[in-house]
Design a protein that fits this description.
alpha/beta, 5-stranded mixed beta sheet, 19 helices
Amino acid sequence: MRSKKWIALGAGAAATALVLAGCSSTPSDESNDGGGSSGPEVEVFTWWAAGSEKAGLDALVSVFNEQNPDLEFVNGAVAGGAGSAAKDLLQSRLQAGDAPDTFQAHAGAELQDYIDAAQIQDVSDLYDEFGLTDAFPADLIDRLTVDGMIYSVPSNIHRANVVWANPTVLADAGLDPEAEYADIDEWIVALDAVQDSGKTALSIATTWTQVNFLETVLLSSLGAEAYNGLWDGSTDWEGPEVTAALEDFETLMTYTNTDRDGLDWPDATQQIIDGQAGFNVMGDWAEAAFAEAGLTSPTDYIYFPVPGTEGVFDFLADSFTLPVGAPNEDGAKAWLETVSSADGQAAFNKAKGSIPARTDADTSDFSPYQQSAIEAFETDVIVSSLAHGAAAPVATLNKVADATSKFTTGASDLATFQSELAAAVNG
Protein backbone atom coordinates (compact mmCIF):
# COMPACT_ATOMS: atom_id res chain seq x y z
CA MET A 1 0.00 0.00 0.00
CA ARG A 2 1.39 3.42 -0.88
CA SER A 3 2.12 5.64 2.09
CA LYS A 4 1.58 9.35 1.53
CA LYS A 5 1.76 12.52 3.56
CA TRP A 6 -1.50 14.29 2.77
CA ILE A 7 -2.04 17.92 3.62
CA ALA A 8 -5.50 17.92 5.18
CA LEU A 9 -8.17 19.95 3.48
CA GLY A 10 -10.47 22.38 5.20
CA ALA A 11 -13.90 21.30 6.35
CA GLY A 12 -15.65 21.99 3.07
CA ALA A 13 -13.06 20.43 0.82
CA ALA A 14 -12.38 17.51 3.13
CA ALA A 15 -16.02 16.66 3.07
CA THR A 16 -15.92 16.37 -0.66
CA ALA A 17 -12.69 14.41 -1.09
CA LEU A 18 -9.24 15.26 -2.23
CA VAL A 19 -9.33 13.49 -5.53
CA LEU A 20 -10.41 15.23 -8.68
CA ALA A 21 -10.45 14.87 -12.33
CA GLY A 22 -8.94 17.69 -14.10
CA CYS A 23 -6.66 17.83 -16.83
CA SER A 24 -7.51 19.69 -19.80
CA SER A 25 -9.14 19.92 -23.12
CA THR A 26 -7.90 19.66 -26.63
CA PRO A 27 -9.29 20.64 -30.00
CA SER A 28 -12.41 18.81 -31.04
CA ASP A 29 -12.27 15.48 -32.78
CA GLU A 30 -15.09 14.36 -35.02
CA SER A 31 -14.69 10.65 -34.43
CA ASN A 32 -17.44 9.02 -32.39
CA ASP A 33 -16.39 5.45 -33.02
CA GLY A 34 -15.66 3.39 -29.94
CA GLY A 35 -14.39 0.39 -31.92
CA GLY A 36 -15.82 -2.99 -32.84
CA SER A 37 -18.35 -3.64 -30.07
CA SER A 38 -22.07 -3.91 -30.74
CA GLY A 39 -25.08 -4.21 -28.50
CA PRO A 40 -26.63 -1.94 -25.87
CA GLU A 41 -25.06 1.50 -26.01
CA VAL A 42 -23.04 3.05 -23.19
CA GLU A 43 -22.58 6.79 -23.59
CA VAL A 44 -19.42 8.01 -21.85
CA PHE A 45 -19.30 11.80 -21.49
CA THR A 46 -15.80 13.38 -21.26
CA TRP A 47 -13.77 16.34 -22.52
CA TRP A 48 -11.11 14.05 -24.00
CA ALA A 49 -11.75 15.02 -27.60
CA ALA A 50 -8.40 14.82 -29.41
CA GLY A 51 -4.67 14.41 -29.19
CA SER A 52 -3.00 12.64 -26.31
CA GLU A 53 -6.15 12.77 -24.19
CA LYS A 54 -8.18 10.94 -26.81
CA ALA A 55 -5.31 8.47 -27.13
CA GLY A 56 -5.76 7.69 -23.44
CA LEU A 57 -9.50 7.35 -23.86
CA ASP A 58 -9.03 5.10 -26.90
CA ALA A 59 -6.71 2.84 -24.87
CA LEU A 60 -9.35 2.60 -22.15
CA VAL A 61 -12.07 1.90 -24.71
CA SER A 62 -10.02 -0.96 -26.15
CA VAL A 63 -9.92 -2.60 -22.73
CA PHE A 64 -13.64 -1.91 -22.26
CA ASN A 65 -14.45 -3.56 -25.59
CA GLU A 66 -12.39 -6.61 -24.67
CA GLN A 67 -14.06 -6.91 -21.29
CA ASN A 68 -17.57 -6.15 -22.59
CA PRO A 69 -18.01 -7.47 -26.14
CA ASP A 70 -21.80 -7.21 -25.86
CA LEU A 71 -21.79 -3.47 -25.17
CA GLU A 72 -21.27 -0.59 -27.61
CA PHE A 73 -19.18 2.37 -26.44
CA VAL A 74 -20.58 5.74 -27.49
CA ASN A 75 -18.12 8.63 -27.31
CA GLY A 76 -19.78 11.68 -25.80
CA ALA A 77 -16.63 13.81 -25.73
CA VAL A 78 -17.02 17.60 -25.86
CA ALA A 79 -13.98 19.84 -26.38
CA GLY A 80 -13.38 23.13 -24.58
CA GLY A 81 -11.06 24.69 -21.95
CA ALA A 82 -10.42 22.24 -19.11
CA GLY A 83 -13.88 20.78 -19.51
CA SER A 84 -15.77 24.08 -19.23
CA ALA A 85 -17.77 23.54 -22.41
CA ALA A 86 -18.46 19.92 -21.47
CA LYS A 87 -19.60 20.86 -17.97
CA ASP A 88 -21.96 23.52 -19.29
CA LEU A 89 -23.56 21.07 -21.71
CA LEU A 90 -23.64 18.34 -19.09
CA GLN A 91 -25.47 20.55 -16.60
CA SER A 92 -28.09 21.40 -19.22
CA ARG A 93 -28.59 17.72 -19.96
CA LEU A 94 -28.83 16.73 -16.31
CA GLN A 95 -31.38 19.45 -15.63
CA ALA A 96 -33.38 18.29 -18.64
CA GLY A 97 -33.37 14.67 -17.43
CA ASP A 98 -31.12 13.60 -20.31
CA ALA A 99 -28.20 12.15 -18.36
CA PRO A 100 -25.44 10.24 -20.16
CA ASP A 101 -24.72 6.78 -18.80
CA THR A 102 -21.58 8.06 -17.06
CA PHE A 103 -19.59 11.27 -17.10
CA GLN A 104 -16.11 12.49 -16.27
CA ALA A 105 -16.14 14.79 -13.26
CA HIS A 106 -13.98 16.82 -10.94
CA ALA A 107 -14.41 14.72 -7.83
CA GLY A 108 -13.18 17.22 -5.30
CA ALA A 109 -15.23 20.18 -4.13
CA GLU A 110 -16.83 20.40 -7.57
CA LEU A 111 -18.47 17.01 -7.13
CA GLN A 112 -20.45 18.37 -4.19
CA ASP A 113 -22.62 20.33 -6.60
CA TYR A 114 -23.79 17.09 -8.24
CA ILE A 115 -24.27 15.45 -4.84
CA ASP A 116 -26.34 18.35 -3.52
CA ALA A 117 -28.48 18.30 -6.66
CA ALA A 118 -29.02 14.52 -6.30
CA GLN A 119 -27.65 14.03 -9.81
CA ILE A 120 -25.19 11.21 -9.05
CA GLN A 121 -25.46 7.95 -7.16
CA ASP A 122 -23.50 6.42 -4.32
CA VAL A 123 -21.16 3.79 -5.82
CA SER A 124 -19.79 2.44 -2.54
CA ASP A 125 -21.17 -1.01 -3.29
CA LEU A 126 -19.09 -1.10 -6.49
CA TYR A 127 -15.94 -0.53 -4.44
CA ASP A 128 -16.76 -3.72 -2.56
CA GLU A 129 -17.81 -5.59 -5.71
CA PHE A 130 -14.70 -4.58 -7.67
CA GLY A 131 -12.28 -4.95 -4.75
CA LEU A 132 -11.30 -1.30 -4.87
CA THR A 133 -11.00 -0.83 -1.13
CA ASP A 134 -7.91 -3.02 -1.34
CA ALA A 135 -6.63 -1.75 -4.71
CA PHE A 136 -6.72 1.98 -3.89
CA PRO A 137 -4.65 3.52 -1.06
CA ALA A 138 -6.65 3.72 2.17
CA ASP A 139 -6.15 7.46 2.54
CA LEU A 140 -7.45 7.97 -1.00
CA ILE A 141 -10.57 5.98 -0.13
CA ASP A 142 -11.01 8.17 2.95
CA ARG A 143 -10.93 11.32 0.86
CA LEU A 144 -13.37 9.93 -1.67
CA THR A 145 -15.87 9.23 1.09
CA VAL A 146 -18.59 11.82 1.76
CA ASP A 147 -20.86 11.10 4.74
CA GLY A 148 -20.08 7.40 4.43
CA MET A 149 -20.68 7.28 0.67
CA ILE A 150 -18.45 7.35 -2.44
CA TYR A 151 -19.64 9.04 -5.63
CA SER A 152 -16.93 8.48 -8.22
CA VAL A 153 -14.29 6.05 -9.43
CA PRO A 154 -10.85 7.56 -10.17
CA SER A 155 -9.06 6.36 -13.27
CA ASN A 156 -5.69 7.98 -12.57
CA ILE A 157 -3.60 10.50 -10.68
CA HIS A 158 -2.14 13.64 -12.27
CA ARG A 159 0.33 16.24 -11.03
CA ALA A 160 -0.27 19.94 -11.75
CA ASN A 161 2.98 21.57 -10.54
CA VAL A 162 5.35 20.51 -13.32
CA VAL A 163 7.70 22.64 -15.43
CA TRP A 164 8.46 21.34 -18.93
CA ALA A 165 11.43 22.78 -20.77
CA ASN A 166 13.33 22.55 -24.05
CA PRO A 167 17.01 21.82 -23.24
CA THR A 168 18.24 23.15 -26.59
CA VAL A 169 16.53 26.49 -26.05
CA LEU A 170 18.02 26.66 -22.56
CA ALA A 171 21.52 25.80 -23.75
CA ASP A 172 21.30 28.36 -26.56
CA ALA A 173 20.43 30.94 -23.89
CA GLY A 174 23.60 30.05 -21.99
CA LEU A 175 21.81 27.98 -19.34
CA ASP A 176 22.65 24.55 -18.00
CA PRO A 177 19.65 22.31 -18.83
CA GLU A 178 20.43 20.26 -15.72
CA ALA A 179 20.33 23.30 -13.42
CA GLU A 180 17.92 23.27 -10.49
CA TYR A 181 16.06 26.34 -9.27
CA ALA A 182 15.38 26.53 -5.56
CA ASP A 183 12.75 29.25 -5.79
CA ILE A 184 11.01 31.71 -8.09
CA ASP A 185 13.82 34.28 -7.80
CA GLU A 186 16.40 31.81 -9.12
CA TRP A 187 14.04 30.79 -11.91
CA ILE A 188 13.53 34.42 -12.97
CA VAL A 189 17.26 34.68 -13.70
CA ALA A 190 16.86 31.79 -16.17
CA LEU A 191 13.70 33.32 -17.64
CA ASP A 192 15.62 36.52 -18.27
CA ALA A 193 18.29 34.57 -20.14
CA VAL A 194 15.77 32.86 -22.40
CA GLN A 195 13.94 36.10 -23.07
CA ASP A 196 17.23 37.82 -23.92
CA SER A 197 17.97 35.04 -26.43
CA GLY A 198 14.89 36.03 -28.42
CA LYS A 199 12.67 33.08 -27.48
CA THR A 200 9.51 33.09 -25.37
CA ALA A 201 10.69 32.44 -21.84
CA LEU A 202 7.46 30.95 -20.46
CA SER A 203 4.69 29.64 -22.72
CA ILE A 204 1.14 29.69 -21.45
CA ALA A 205 -2.37 29.57 -22.86
CA THR A 206 -5.92 30.63 -22.03
CA THR A 207 -7.41 31.52 -18.64
CA TRP A 208 -7.66 28.05 -17.09
CA THR A 209 -3.97 27.42 -17.76
CA GLN A 210 -3.22 30.76 -16.09
CA VAL A 211 -5.22 29.67 -13.03
CA ASN A 212 -3.24 26.41 -13.03
CA PHE A 213 -0.07 28.51 -13.12
CA LEU A 214 -1.38 30.84 -10.39
CA GLU A 215 -1.97 27.95 -7.99
CA THR A 216 1.58 26.69 -8.48
CA VAL A 217 2.99 30.16 -7.77
CA LEU A 218 0.86 30.42 -4.63
CA LEU A 219 2.10 26.97 -3.62
CA SER A 220 5.72 27.95 -4.26
CA SER A 221 5.53 31.23 -2.40
CA LEU A 222 3.35 30.16 0.54
CA GLY A 223 4.41 26.55 1.07
CA ALA A 224 2.08 23.58 1.33
CA GLU A 225 0.44 24.34 4.68
CA ALA A 226 -0.26 27.99 3.98
CA TYR A 227 -1.45 27.11 0.47
CA ASN A 228 -3.90 24.68 2.00
CA GLY A 229 -4.92 27.43 4.41
CA LEU A 230 -6.26 29.40 1.48
CA TRP A 231 -9.08 26.87 1.30
CA ASP A 232 -9.77 26.25 5.00
CA GLY A 233 -9.61 29.89 6.05
CA SER A 234 -6.37 29.76 8.05
CA THR A 235 -4.44 31.79 5.44
CA ASP A 236 -5.62 35.36 4.88
CA TRP A 237 -6.20 35.99 1.19
CA GLU A 238 -5.69 39.69 1.83
CA GLY A 239 -2.52 39.23 3.89
CA PRO A 240 1.02 40.27 2.92
CA GLU A 241 2.14 36.70 2.19
CA VAL A 242 -0.49 36.39 -0.54
CA THR A 243 0.42 39.86 -1.83
CA ALA A 244 4.01 38.69 -2.25
CA ALA A 245 2.89 35.57 -4.10
CA LEU A 246 0.70 37.60 -6.44
CA GLU A 247 3.61 39.94 -7.09
CA ASP A 248 5.60 36.88 -8.17
CA PHE A 249 2.73 35.85 -10.44
CA GLU A 250 2.57 39.35 -11.93
CA THR A 251 6.31 39.27 -12.64
CA LEU A 252 6.24 35.80 -14.15
CA MET A 253 3.37 36.68 -16.48
CA THR A 254 5.61 39.32 -18.10
CA TYR A 255 7.71 36.46 -19.51
CA THR A 256 4.77 34.81 -21.30
CA ASN A 257 3.62 34.87 -24.91
CA THR A 258 1.28 37.75 -25.84
CA ASP A 259 -1.06 35.48 -27.84
CA ARG A 260 -1.80 33.34 -24.77
CA ASP A 261 -5.53 34.06 -24.52
CA GLY A 262 -6.17 32.60 -27.96
CA LEU A 263 -4.41 29.29 -27.19
CA ASP A 264 -5.19 26.11 -25.26
CA TRP A 265 -2.67 23.94 -23.42
CA PRO A 266 -1.56 21.82 -26.41
CA ASP A 267 -0.52 25.02 -28.21
CA ALA A 268 1.58 26.18 -25.27
CA THR A 269 3.16 22.73 -24.97
CA GLN A 270 3.82 22.70 -28.70
CA GLN A 271 5.93 25.82 -28.29
CA ILE A 272 8.27 23.76 -26.10
CA ILE A 273 8.23 20.88 -28.59
CA ASP A 274 9.00 23.23 -31.51
CA GLY A 275 11.75 25.11 -29.67
CA GLN A 276 9.85 28.40 -29.64
CA ALA A 277 9.82 28.68 -25.84
CA GLY A 278 12.07 27.71 -22.97
CA PHE A 279 9.70 26.78 -20.15
CA ASN A 280 6.05 25.83 -19.69
CA VAL A 281 4.03 25.00 -16.56
CA MET A 282 1.36 22.37 -17.12
CA GLY A 283 -0.05 19.25 -15.58
CA ASP A 284 1.54 15.98 -16.56
CA TRP A 285 -0.94 15.21 -19.29
CA ALA A 286 1.73 17.16 -21.22
CA GLU A 287 3.97 14.07 -20.88
CA ALA A 288 1.72 12.27 -23.36
CA ALA A 289 2.02 15.15 -25.81
CA PHE A 290 5.82 14.86 -25.79
CA ALA A 291 5.55 11.10 -26.27
CA GLU A 292 3.06 11.57 -29.11
CA ALA A 293 5.58 13.90 -30.79
CA GLY A 294 8.21 11.15 -30.58
CA LEU A 295 10.39 13.02 -28.09
CA THR A 296 12.44 11.52 -25.29
CA SER A 297 13.72 13.00 -22.07
CA PRO A 298 16.23 14.40 -21.24
CA THR A 299 17.47 14.75 -24.82
CA ASP A 300 14.42 16.51 -26.23
CA TYR A 301 12.64 17.82 -23.13
CA ILE A 302 13.15 18.03 -19.40
CA TYR A 303 10.82 18.34 -16.43
CA PHE A 304 10.95 19.31 -12.76
CA PRO A 305 8.58 20.61 -10.05
CA VAL A 306 7.75 24.30 -10.21
CA PRO A 307 10.62 26.05 -8.36
CA GLY A 308 9.84 26.23 -4.67
CA THR A 309 7.48 23.21 -4.76
CA GLU A 310 10.01 20.37 -4.58
CA GLY A 311 8.59 17.67 -2.31
CA VAL A 312 4.98 18.73 -2.87
CA PHE A 313 2.60 16.93 -5.24
CA ASP A 314 -0.22 19.19 -6.52
CA PHE A 315 -2.77 16.46 -7.00
CA LEU A 316 -5.70 15.83 -9.33
CA ALA A 317 -7.34 12.79 -10.87
CA ASP A 318 -9.86 11.92 -13.54
CA SER A 319 -12.89 10.02 -12.30
CA PHE A 320 -16.27 8.78 -13.46
CA THR A 321 -19.71 8.84 -11.90
CA LEU A 322 -23.00 6.94 -12.03
CA PRO A 323 -25.67 9.53 -12.83
CA VAL A 324 -29.18 9.36 -11.48
CA GLY A 325 -31.35 8.33 -14.42
CA ALA A 326 -28.55 6.77 -16.46
CA PRO A 327 -30.30 5.11 -19.42
CA ASN A 328 -28.03 2.07 -19.27
CA GLU A 329 -27.05 1.76 -15.62
CA ASP A 330 -25.64 -1.74 -16.04
CA GLY A 331 -23.52 -0.52 -18.94
CA ALA A 332 -22.31 2.42 -16.87
CA LYS A 333 -21.28 0.04 -14.09
CA ALA A 334 -19.39 -2.03 -16.66
CA TRP A 335 -17.54 1.12 -17.71
CA LEU A 336 -16.71 1.92 -14.08
CA GLU A 337 -15.38 -1.61 -13.65
CA THR A 338 -13.08 -1.17 -16.65
CA VAL A 339 -11.98 2.28 -15.45
CA SER A 340 -11.03 0.83 -12.07
CA SER A 341 -9.47 -2.39 -13.34
CA ALA A 342 -5.72 -2.97 -13.30
CA ASP A 343 -5.70 -3.51 -17.07
CA GLY A 344 -7.81 -0.44 -17.72
CA GLN A 345 -5.69 1.81 -15.51
CA ALA A 346 -2.43 0.51 -16.95
CA ALA A 347 -3.55 1.07 -20.56
CA PHE A 348 -5.16 4.44 -19.92
CA ASN A 349 -2.39 5.96 -17.84
CA LYS A 350 0.46 4.80 -20.06
CA ALA A 351 -1.17 6.67 -22.95
CA LYS A 352 -2.25 9.73 -20.98
CA GLY A 353 0.92 10.51 -19.04
CA SER A 354 -0.66 10.05 -15.62
CA ILE A 355 -0.22 7.25 -13.07
CA PRO A 356 -2.73 4.66 -11.86
CA ALA A 357 -4.78 5.19 -8.72
CA ARG A 358 -4.44 1.44 -8.15
CA THR A 359 -1.35 0.25 -6.33
CA ASP A 360 -1.25 -3.07 -8.23
CA ALA A 361 -1.41 -1.91 -11.88
CA ASP A 362 1.54 -2.91 -14.06
CA THR A 363 3.66 0.21 -14.62
CA SER A 364 6.88 -1.55 -15.63
CA ASP A 365 6.81 -0.05 -19.14
CA PHE A 366 5.79 3.47 -18.11
CA SER A 367 7.97 6.41 -19.11
CA PRO A 368 10.77 7.76 -16.91
CA TYR A 369 8.59 10.75 -16.05
CA GLN A 370 5.72 8.50 -14.96
CA GLN A 371 8.10 6.42 -12.86
CA SER A 372 9.26 9.63 -11.16
CA ALA A 373 5.65 10.66 -10.57
CA ILE A 374 4.87 7.29 -8.97
CA GLU A 375 7.79 7.76 -6.61
CA ALA A 376 6.84 11.36 -5.84
CA PHE A 377 3.24 10.44 -5.10
CA GLU A 378 4.42 7.85 -2.62
CA THR A 379 6.71 10.24 -0.73
CA ASP A 380 5.69 13.87 -1.30
CA VAL A 381 3.28 16.01 0.66
CA ILE A 382 -0.02 15.97 -1.25
CA VAL A 383 -2.11 19.11 -1.79
CA SER A 384 -5.16 19.62 -3.99
CA SER A 385 -5.45 21.60 -7.19
CA LEU A 386 -7.59 24.72 -7.50
CA ALA A 387 -7.78 24.78 -11.29
CA HIS A 388 -8.97 21.18 -11.45
CA GLY A 389 -11.80 21.18 -8.97
CA ALA A 390 -10.49 19.76 -5.68
CA ALA A 391 -9.68 22.82 -3.61
CA ALA A 392 -12.84 24.85 -4.13
CA PRO A 393 -16.39 24.53 -5.55
CA VAL A 394 -17.02 25.33 -9.19
CA ALA A 395 -18.65 28.70 -8.43
CA THR A 396 -15.52 29.77 -6.55
CA LEU A 397 -13.24 28.54 -9.33
CA ASN A 398 -15.27 30.47 -11.91
CA LYS A 399 -14.88 33.67 -9.89
CA VAL A 400 -11.15 33.06 -9.50
CA ALA A 401 -10.88 32.54 -13.26
CA ASP A 402 -12.78 35.75 -13.95
CA ALA A 403 -10.52 37.70 -11.60
CA THR A 404 -7.41 36.15 -13.14
CA SER A 405 -8.52 36.93 -16.68
CA LYS A 406 -9.19 40.56 -15.74
CA PHE A 407 -5.76 40.85 -14.17
CA THR A 408 -3.74 39.20 -16.94
CA THR A 409 -5.51 41.22 -19.64
CA GLY A 410 -4.79 44.49 -17.84
CA ALA A 411 -8.36 45.18 -16.73
CA SER A 412 -7.43 45.28 -13.02
CA ASP A 413 -4.41 46.04 -10.87
CA LEU A 414 -2.78 43.78 -8.29
CA ALA A 415 -4.69 45.22 -5.33
CA THR A 416 -7.99 44.69 -7.11
CA PHE A 417 -6.93 41.20 -8.18
CA GLN A 418 -6.13 40.25 -4.61
CA SER A 419 -9.40 41.62 -3.24
CA GLU A 420 -11.37 39.84 -5.96
CA LEU A 421 -9.63 36.54 -5.18
CA ALA A 422 -10.44 37.00 -1.50
CA ALA A 423 -14.07 37.72 -2.32
CA ALA A 424 -14.24 34.71 -4.65
CA VAL A 425 -13.02 32.28 -2.00
CA ASN A 426 -14.61 33.83 1.07
CA GLY A 427 -17.96 34.44 -0.56
